[in-house]
Amino acid sequence: MFTGIDEVDWASLRHAYGSAEDVPGLLRGLASADRDEREGALDGMYGSVHHQGNVYDSTLACVPFLFALAARADVPDRGGIVELLVSIGMEGEGAAVRSGAEGFVALAADPDPWVRRAASAALVRFLDDPGRVLGVLRDRITVERDDRVLLALTESLGLFVRRHPAHAAAAVDLLAAQSLPPYGPGLRLAALGQLALGAPDRLPAELVPTAVRLLRDRSEQRTGGRPDEPDRPGTDTLVGRIRRLRPSDEEGAYLLRTLHSALDDRVADRIALLTGQLTSPAPVDRRNAVWMAAALLREWRADYAGLVGLLGTQVMQEQDPLRDAAVSVLAELFDLAAPAVDHVHALVTARPDLWVRRWERGAPALGGPLKALARSGDARAVPVLAQLLAGPLPPDDLGHAVVHLGPAAAPLAPALRRRLGQIRLDSPGAADRAAPLLSALTALADVAALPEVLRLLSTAPRALGPRDTAVGFAIRALDSFGPAAREAAPLLRGLLDTEYAAEAAGALWSTGEDVSVVLPVLLRELTHERSGRRRPAAGELARLGPAARPALPALRRMTGASGVGERVSAAAALWRIGQDPEDVLPVFRAAWAGNPRTRGTIAACLARMGPAGDPLRDLLRTEVTGPRRHTARAGGYGSHDIQKDEELLRLCRRVLAGE
After folding, report:
1. If phi over 0 gives left and psi between -120 and 50 gives alpha, with beta otherwise, what is residue 424?
2. Are residues 277 and 231 part of one domain?
3. Vertex 521: Cα angle to 517 and 526 (nearest 5)
4. What is the C-alpha to C-alpha distance for residues 106 and 78, in angstroms, rounded to an integer?
5. N or C: which end of the chain has fewer CB within 10 A?
6. CA 49, CA 60: separation in Å to the nearest integer?
7. Does some domain include residue 624?
8. Domain check: are 275 and 367 in the same one?
9. Are residues 567 and 612 part of one domain?
10. Measured at the alpha carbon of residue 77, what is the angle toward residues 71 and 83, in degrees to the nearest 5?
11. Same domain, yes or no: 192 and 140
């Protein structure tokens, strides 16, 4: 199986970390009799030769040897090797793997179920003859007795339907048959998911009730553990650790995720399905549902009161993973968590040990239940936060939660000031501890904190680090204090030649400084080479209103900038200074469509424009009736995305209502 391996000039080939001269050792390690060595070799393959899914010349040179290893029955753990081959082939290098695709036909009938399972996906992806692929899949389904492999074959049938629509009819018939008795509930769920993805017209009329019933039947049959991976080792390698961290019912999670993905924008059906999942007797089904509910809430708009209420019922469960999952999702919802807050408050009351989350390394953080309660705006969080602030080591991020409590948090101001005043400004991490406290005091407009803020700002910028740390927060705090912060003027003037110039100028304006001092600084910043300096300058100029008319030419030029956010900032300033909608509306319309993340800024400006913004009302009407969140995005999300979308909807409705 290693014939010719020494004839390859591995030293001239490359992988993620340079020369590939270590690759022969990794390949030989895959065939080792020692399990730790095999998994270490597989770690190495994924870590360097196929690092983060990348394919190098050394990766392609490995393919023939990987096929040879996969074909040897005396090599243990060959399923992992087949999975590696499939991954390499899927990353834009299908030709190299396709050249050996005939080997997958034999592997699909291998005695090892892990190998059979991994090979089934490869048949559809790399074998070029659709008729032959379908024949192999049909034959394997007929004789296969391992439920895990049958599930993989069902998924492969679904992939076949989507890849080969001209040959799909027979595959759809097979899937439809698998969705009915006598097949087991797990396989029937898998078939329904694949039909929903590729042949929705073949789904049963009562899809959701059928899926919920099958889920519960499947749960009753489960015996615990990880039924989808009993053969796989769990050593202390990267691969082993990843396997141990997978969901306890990874198979069940995958089955339901597939169905949710297929239902996509059928939000009512998905809510009904989640309702069934969240009321399942099996905690593992409910935990899977919690994470699927999070995905739905992040992407689609709907009336989620009932669903959120069910999420709330999970937080008092005895199973820590279920509770923690529900709390984590509720903390993302902010005021949308209202139907669950009584449950969250009950948990906060019953479990003081969850108020703070402590790490082996790093500062303590606010515990999930208390964070969710505070972010929802519930005033019952205030006494608990007060207890933490009175303790010896309150969480550093506590101040960020206070921001969401509004005036109800006013009793916390003295303790917040005291904590801010106790920070040793020359200590490591001083800025990280100060920023949340400053954020809270700014939200409360706590003028009494002026001495503490002045003490902190007097060290800027040397001791408190780069931009976006405590210096910026301190300036915003002074800005919120208005004329009461007049004595801060000398410190703010000292920042007018720094990267904080625009913010400092704005704070000076708030304290009552004359426009003749502020305007030249902002005009200078408006032409700075860095966008990160121009955008804050535009925002501060907007606050000056007509007094900033000398900035109009530069702002008009800025509406042609390459960055959409910069163009929107300039247009918003143009309106507040010049009150000419002709300068503004075309920029807003283009940005609304081109960069949805600017919609909140635009809607806020339209709320100020009144009738002058009427030509853009069509955008707002479309927005409030649109089913998808403007913050929805592939490949990730931000913890405030739902909140930002709900705020956009509120702004749009306010403008449309003529307020």
Report:
1. beta
2. no
3. 145
4. 13
5. C
6. 9
7. yes
8. yes
9. yes
10. 75
11. yes
Angle of helix 147-163 versus helix 130-143 axis, rounded to 10:
160
- Quick one: average pLDDT of 246-265? 85
Whole-angstrom distance, CA of residue 456 vs CA of residue 463: 9
Query: Is 569 within 8 Å of 537 (Cβ atoms)?
Result: no
Instruction: Answer yes or no: is pLDDT of 93 > 70.
Output: no
Per-residue pLDDT tens for 415-453? 999 999 999 888 888 888 999 999 999 999 999 999 999
Backbone φ/ψ region at 129: left (φ over 0), alpha (ψ -120 to 50), beta:
beta
Number of residues that this document lists for the chain: 659
Per-residue model confidence (pLDDT) at position 91: 72
Question: With bands split at pLDDT 50, 70 and 90, how would you rate the model's confidence at 635?
Answer: low
Do 36 and 132 lie in a common domain? Answer: no
Which residues, other chains included, contact 570 with Cβ-Cβ below 8 Å and sequence gap of 6+?
538, 555, 556, 558, 559, 561, 587
Collapse the DSSP code of 366 into the 3-class scheme (helix H, G, I; strand E, B; otherwise coil) and give the result.
Answer: strand
Going by C-alpha positions, the residue among 405, 462, 401, 406 that lies closest to residue 437 is: 401
- Residue pair 374/380 in contact by the 8 Å Cβ criterion: no
Indicate whether this model's pTM tops 0.90: no
Cβ contacts of 560 within 8 Å, gap of 6 or more: 567
Give 51's contacts (C-beta < 8 A, 6+ positions apart).
15, 16, 17
User: Tens digit of pLDDT for each residue in 335-363?
Assistant: 999 999 999 999 999 999 999 998 877 78
Q: Where is the domain boundary, 100, 127, 146? A: 100
Secondary structure (3-state) at 356: strand
Torsions phi, psi for 180 (to 5 deg): -120, 165
> How many separate domains does the chain show?
4
Give the range of the structural domain holding residue 337, as residue numbers without chain letter.
264-378
One domain, residues 137 and 229: yes
652 within some domain: yes
Q: Report pLDDT digits (tens) over 35-65.
A: 999 999 999 999 999 999 999 999 999 999 9
Domain boundary at 73, 100, 127, which? 100
Taking the C-alpha atoms of residue 404 and residue 385, their distance in angstroms, rounded to an integer, is 13
Is 569 a member of any domain? yes
Contact 188, 178 (CB under 8 A): yes
According to DSSP, the residues that pair with 14 across neighbouring strands are 19
Q: Give dist(CA 222, CA 251) in Å, integer.
A: 11
Give the DSSP H/E element, type plus range, for residue 357.
strand 356-357
Query: Considering the domain boundaries, does residue 414 fall inside one?
Result: no
Q: Are residues 81 and 24 in the same domain?
A: yes
Would you state the pLDDT for residue 228?
39
| Alpha-carbon distances of 354 from 48, 98, 357, 545, rounded to whole Å | 40, 53, 7, 48
